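Is 2-oxoglutaric acid placement plausible here? Inputs below.
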Amino acid sequence: EVFTALADMEGLVSTELELVRHLDNYIQAEEIRLKRLRGYLEDYESMYQEASADVSKYLANPINAYLLVKRLTSDWKQVEGVMTQNVGPAFIQNITQHRSVLRFPSDEDLNGAAAALMRLQDTYKLDTHALAEGKLLGKKYSRQLTAGDCWELGRQSYNNGDHYHTVLWMGEALNKFESESNKTVTRQDILEYLAFSTFKQGNVKEALQLTHELLKLVPFHQRALGNKKYYEDLLRQQGVIQRRGETGDEDNVVMDEPFNTANLKLTKPSDQLPERENYEKLCRGEKLMDPKIEGRLRCRYVTNNVPYLYIQPVKMEEAFHKPLIVIYHNVINDDEIETVKKMAQPRFKRATVQNSVTGNLEPANYRISKSAWLKSEEHDHVFKVTRRVGDVTGLDMATAEDLQVVNYGIGGHYEPHFDYARKEEVNAFKDLGWGNRVATWLFYMSEVEAGGATVFPKLNLALWPQKGSAAFWYNLHPNGEGNELTRHAACPVLTGSKWVSNKWIHERNQEFRHPCGLRYDTDM
Ligand SMILES: O=C(O)CCC(=O)C(=O)O
Ligand SMILES: [Fe+2]
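Reply from A.M.:
I modeled the complex. Tokens:
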């Protein structure tokens, strides 16, 4: 799939160019064909004019008589030949052959991209109508969506069993539909989904009204007739409409005002994440850290007894105390970033997470990105950045994992998690044999236009990516137990592309190190 990393999606733009070329060639071929047909038409017309001016005189000429017969037999066969000559299949065949070379997104990609939009809509509280106008946070980013585009988003949500977003997007499709002069979807198609999902969201009366609208268009729509009866029975039981025959009950449920999702009770699909609300607030930049904590944060330079750090000390900014989380500035330069990105991209795979039951690595909706691993030996630049992590932290890089490079695509994110293995995850990192992930070093290799913060929900802390900087923290208490306060997440990317890379440092070999003047001590 391609939707999980923006870097991979770039290939799709060349695919689109190829399709534009193919379609253009096809239209040109069709135009040549139609031009030939027009030529025949003009010939036939002028000859008919001549003949009909004086039929008997015309036919008195044996050559004319012959030509008339010929025109209606063999000549006409040629015309028919051109009329049925269909160049379409040949062009489609040609595009199909290109499928092996060009990147084409799949249905899974369409679904993933739609789900990502819904995630962004929820996390960043984006208004459906504004989004459909191509606006993000008040700024116009893209062209308007058509009724058909909104309908497709609704349909994707429907296929995911997400009736909440189905209602929002089908509702928007209906609004757009009314004002569209060239219709991009039918009213019937919208109403079918909208009515049912409105019902699934618990709005029976509105669902019945929409079903009436649908039946006005398609009076014998079987499913709609069945649903209508079902909704009416429900409403009768609830006493919302009268018993059959007592009054003209149907009249109670005609649409008295235009359908508006704002008048409905809608509930977001529930999820298992307890800190969801706080997490999303932090992502939106709403929740600010306690000013008392913030006031005590300091900046300083790190030299760490490393010769080259004396020449070029690294600026360290404290982002949080207890647990200590710091940002190091300018610790990876643009050349190194370019090398790392270039090496990683061809190896990108959808990021996986460890299933806590089976221990298997598998893709999951709560982690959407692509990643690849680079070894220090592979390139001088990778070697140097790894050494720098060791120099700045004072930790031994021999027991650190390879550099993990990550790119987040549309709505790409990683929901709250721990980097260390919890007690029950006994098999994690067993193969490495270096113990748990004692510390995390996270390089920011791009800025992000909007969204994409690294947030710590338990600390009310949000770190905003700055290209060239890195975040660093210890995941474990000195006694080796995991520090739950380090729970963190990567917020969905709203606009832009986010690149990071991680160095996870393990416990082994760090026992006698004095890390970088940072007290490896969560009570600092
Ligand atoms: O991308 C980020 O901001 C955080 C990534 C992260 O937490 C991880 O990869 O473990
Ligand atoms: Fe993490």
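Short version: The first strand starts at residue 135 and ends at 136.
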